[in-house]
Design goal:
single chain; about 150 residues; mainly alpha; 7 helices; elongated
Amino acid sequence: MSQMSTGFSLFIVGWSILLVGVMGVGGYFMFRKFLKSMPKSDGKSDLDWQDYYIDQTRSLWTEEGLTLLNELVEPVPQLFRDVARRSIAAKIGQLALEEGANAITIDLIVKGYIVATPKRDHKWLIAHLQNKQIDYTRFEHYLNAEG
């Protein structure tokens, strides 16, 4: 009888640890989203700016550009892919507006991807660009920049 209750106690403790861990991970991502929705000194949040850049540059995207963006976010897990696509597209849109571009070019997509993603994702970008035979040498200073 005591053997069964010890096993059950261990099951309850293990289940509790798993539950707390999963809730902690979910809470972390919810808190990050909350921080992004907080208004900055200009009265707009990061998410407001993201929506602004996407809306302002929606007509500048070509089918080829959207395809490349979708290919670049492919390694992101499906659950986070839409969020990654929106944040990268917003950064590309911001760069396009700052440069006064008439269209979203491959150069803008590569530059925006480099600026919007952490350095660990740049290996995938380089491999993908080499596979598609796209010259990325003019962006190497972005790839090698810290932060």
